[in-house]
Design goal:
It is built from 21 helices and 7 strands. With 659 residues, it is an alpha+beta fold. The strands form 2 sheets. A 4-stranded antiparallel β-sheet has the order 1-4-2-3, with helices on one face.
C-alpha cells in the first residue's frame, strides 16, 4: 500500500511538472536549432539544423571516445579509426549545412547586375502594415502584367524588387497574448466542428444531420473563418494562418463546383460564394508581400484569376515558369515556408485547380502561351532554328527545363472560350457589373483611332476611356483579341505596348465591349488590332482684329479688313454651302439627322492639307461623308496671306433628312 501511495504521488508530481518538462524540452531543442543555424552557411530549416547539431555532438563524443581508448592502450588502429570517423562526421556535417539560399541570392545578384541594375532602388519605408500590403499588391499586378507582355527584364527587375521588399517589411507590434487566445478559441471551434460534423469514417452508418445540427455547423464554420481573419490581423508573420483560411474557402468553392448549382440556391448564398472567392484572391495577392518567390503561390494565383483577368493569370504562369527554371538551377528556397506551410501550400494549389475546373480550357491555353513566353521547348525544330539564328543578346530565346510539358503554337493561338460564372458553377468569374455608359469623348485628352471595320468588328465608337492627363505624345499599341463563336470578345492581351500602362489598360477595357461584324468560325479565332493614340491638337485662336482709326466725316470707309483666318474661314464656309456633302446611303434606308464638326488644316494658298473629325455625329457614315466633302473644299484667297504658313479651322457640317 505504501508503494502504491508513493507511485501515485510521483505520478502527480510528474504531471504537475509537465509545463516545466515542456519548457525545458523547448529550451533544449531551441538551443540545438540555434547551434545548427549558427554554424550553417545560410538559413536552414529547423529539422536540418537539429540534424547538424546531432551530427556535431554525436560525432564529437564518438571521436573523443576513440581517441581516449587510443591514448590508454597506445593503439595506432584506434587512433586511425578515430581520425577516419571524425572525417566522415565532418563531411556529413558540412554537406548538411550547405544552404541553396546563398547560391540563389548570389545568382540573383549577378543577374540583377547584368540585366537591369538601374531599376533597383532603396527599399521604401512603410509606416503601417496596410500601406505595405497595398503597395505590394500594386507591385504584384505590375509584375504580372509586365511578364504577360513579354517584358522579361522589367518583370525580373520587379520580381527582385518584390523579393527585396519582402525581406524588409514594416515593424508591427504583435500582441502575443491576444494571438494565443484566438488560437485557443480556433482550436476549440475546430474540435466542436469535428464533433458536430464527423468525417466519412465516423459518419458511416449515420443519418444526415438534423436542421439544428446543420445550423450549428454553419455557425461554427462562420466562427472559424472569423477567428482566422482575426489571427491574421494580429500576426502577419504567421503565413500558415492565411493559407489555412484560403484552404477553407477554396474547399467550399471546389465542393460547390463539383456538386453544381443547387435548385434551392438563392441570391444570399451566391453572394456568400462570391465573397469567398474575392477573399481568396485578395489573400493570395497579400501573401506575395511575404513570399513573392514561391512558385506554387503564383500557380495558385493564376488558377483563381483565370476568369477574372486573363492577363494577370498569364503573367503569373510566366513568373512561375521563370521561378521553376531558376529553382532547378540553384535549388529551392527552403526558408520561404515551414513544413506546415509547405503542406498547406500544396493543398491551396490543388484546390485552386479543382475550383477552376470549369475553366480548364482557358487555363490550358494560357499555359501554352506562357510556355512560349518563357521559351520554346529545346526539341522543337522551330525553336532550335531560332536559337541558332538569334543574336547573342536576345534574351527572349531561352531553354525550357526538360520537365516542362512542350507546348505548340497551335495550342497557344486557340481562342479562349468565355469565362464561366461562379454563381452558375461554370467557372470562377464574378457577376459582371452593369455596363457603364459610353464614355464621352474629351478632345482635350487626345483621340483614339481604331480601324474596327478592317479588323472585322462593328463600326462603333471605340469607347476607350482616357483619364487625365490623357495622351501626352502620339503612340500606338497592338491588341490580341480572342473572339468567340457568338462574336463576343473573351480575352484581350497587349502584344505591343504603347509605353504607357494607363493607355494599355484603357485599351484592354474598351476592347472588351467590341462585337464581331463577321461570322466567327467554330472554336473562335484570334485577331490583332492596332490602336493609335493621338495627342490633342492645339488649335491656334484667330488673332484679334486690329483697331482701325476713324475716318473723317464725309468720306466712305473701306470695307472691313479680315485677318487671314477670318478671310479663309469665310471663303471656306461659302464653299461648303455651295458644295455640301452628299447624304450617304445607309442600311435599312434610314436617314438620321446629325452634326459633324470637321477640323481642317489649310495652307496659306487655300488647299486642304488634312481633315479629321473633331466632333462625331454618332453615325460613322455621316462622319465619312463629311470628311470626303471637306477634302475637296479648296479655295483661292482674296488677299495675300504672308504671315502664316498653315491655318486650322473648325467647320460644322449639318445633315438633315431633307438633304
Amino acid at each position: 500500500m505504501k508503494v502504491i501511495a508513493i507511485l501515485i504521488i510521483a505520478v502527480v508530481v510528474f504531471i504537475g511538472l509537465s509545463p516545466f518538462w515542456g519548457w525545458s524540452g523547448a529550451l533544449v531543442y531551441g538551443a540545438i536549432a540555434w547551434l545548427g543555424h549558427l554554424l550553417a552557411t545560410g538559413p536552414l530549416g529547423d529539422g536540418r539544423a537539429a540534424f547538424r547539431t546531432a551530427v556535431l555532438l554525436g560525432g564529437t563524443v564518438s571521436v573523443l571516445s576513440f581517441l581516449r581508448v587510443a591514448w590508454q592502450d597506445r593503439s595506432l588502429s584506434y587512433l586511425l579509426a578515430g581520425g577516419g570517423l571524425g572525417f566522415v562526421f565532418f563531411l556529413i556535417f558540412f554537406a548538411a549545412g550547405l544552404s541553396p539560399e546563398r547560391a540563389a541570392r548570389n545568382a540573383a545578384a549577378v543577374e540583377r547586375a547584368e540585366d537591369a541594375p538601374e531599376q533597383h532602388g532603396d527599399v521604401p519605408r512603410w509606416y503601417s502594415r496596410a500601406q505595405f500590403e497595398r503597395e505590394m499588391v500594386a507591385k504584384v499586378q505590375e509584375t504580372a502584367r509586365a511578364a504577360a507582355r513579354g517584358d522579361r527584364h522589367g518583370a525580373d527587375a520587379l520580381l527582385e524588387e518584390l523579393h527585396l521588399w519582402s525581406r524588409n517589411p514594416p515593424r508591427v507590434a504583435e500582441d502575443a497574448a491576444a494571438y494565443e487566445r484566438l488560437r485557443e478559441a480556433y482550436n476549440e471551434t475546430v474540435d466542436a466542428l469535428r464533433k458536430a460534423n464527423p468525417g466519412p469514417r465516423e459518419a458511416r452508418g449515420t443519418r444526415m444531420p438534423d436542421p439544428a445540427t446543420a445550423e450549428q455547423i454553419r455557425t461554427l464554420e462562420a466562427r472559424q473563418v472569423v477567428l482566422l481573419e482575426q489571427m491574421w490581423e494580429q500576426s502577419a508573420s504567421s503565413i500558415t494562418v492565411a493559407l489555412r483560411l484560403m484552404t477553407l474557402d477554396l474547399r467550399t468553392l471546389a465542393v460547390t463546383q463539383w456538386l453544381g448549382r443547387d435548385a434551392t440556391a438563392d441570391a444570399e448564398s451566391d453572394a456568400a460564394m462570391e465573397r469567398r472567392l474575392w477573399r481568396v484572391q485578395a489573400l493570395q495577392e497579400v501573401l506575395f508581400a511575404y513570399a513573392p518567390m514561391d512558385r506554387r503561390l503564383w500557380e495558385a494565383y493564376a488558377a483563381t484569376v483565370v476568369d477574372k483577368d486573363e492577363e494577370l493569370s498569364l503573367g503569373a504562369l510566366v513568373i512561375a515558369g521563370r521561378l521553376e527554371g531558376r529553382d532547378r538551377k540553384v535549388g529551392a528556397d527552403t526558408g520561404a515556408f515551414d513544413v506546415n506551410a509547405l503542406v498547406l501550400g500544396s493543398d491551396v494549389l490543388t484546390l485552386s485547380t479543382i475550383a477552376g475546373s470549369g475553366s480548364a480550357t482557358r487555363r490550358d491555353i494560357l499555359e501554352a502561351r506562357a510556355a512560349l513566353l518563357v521559351g520554346k521547348p529545346v526539341d522543337d525544330p522551330a525553336s532550335a532554328g531560332q536559337g541558332r539564328d538569334a543574336a547573342p543578346g536576345d534574351e527572349r530565346v531561352m531553354e525550357v527545363p526538360a520537365q516542362r510539358t512542350p507546348r505548340h503554337d497551335v495550342q497557344a493561338e486557340r481562342a479562349m472560350p468565355p469565362a464561366g460564372l461562379l454563381i452558375e458553377r461554370a467557372g470562377l468569374a464574378l457577376r459582371p457589373p452593369p455596363e457603364p455608359p459610353a464614355p464621352v469623348p474629351r478632345r482635350d485628352r487626345g483621340e483614339v483611332q481604331v480601324d474596327l471595320a478592317a479588323a472585322g468588328f462593328k463600326v462603333t465608337p471605340p469607347g476607350i476611356p482616357l483619364r487625365p492627363p490623357g495622351i501626352v505624345t502620339d503612340t500606338r499599341a497592338v491588341l490580341v483579341l480572342d473572339v468567340w463563336e457568338n462574336g463576343q470578345v473573351t480575352s484581350v492581351l497587349i502584344e505591343t505596348g504603347s509605353g504607357n500602362p494607363d493607355l494599355d489598360q484603357a485599351a484592354r477595357y474598351g476592347a472588351r465591349g467590341w462585337r464581331s461584324a463577321t461570322k466567327v468560325p467554330k472554336g473562335g479565332e484570334r485577331r490583332r488590332v492596332e490602336v493609335v493614340f493621338k495627342a490633342p491638337v492645339t488649335v491656334q485662336a484667330p488673332p484679334p482684329a486690329e483697331d482701325v482709326a476713324p475716318f473723317p466725316v464725309g468720306t466712305t470707309p473701306p470695307p472691313p479688313q479680315l485677318n487671314p483666318a477670318q478671310s479663309l474661314g469665310a471663303q471656306l464656309s461659302a464653299q461648303a454651302r455651295r458644295h455640301p456633302p452628299r447624304y450617304p446611303t445607309m442600311q435599312g434606308g434610314e436617314r438620321p439627322d446629325g452634326r459633324v464638326v470637321v477640323m481642317l488644316r489649310m495652307s496659306a494658298g487655300g488647299r486642304v492639307l488634312d481633315a479629321r473629325v473633331a466632333e462625331s455625329s454618332g453615325h460613322p457614315e455621316l462622319d465619312r461623308a463629311a470628311l470626303q466633302a471637306a477634302r475637296g473644299w479648296h479655295v483661292t484667297p482674296t488677299r495675300a496671306v504672308t504671315d502664316v504658313d498653315e491655318i486650322t479651322l473648325r467647320i460644322p457640317v449639318t445633315f438633315s433628312a431633307g438633304m
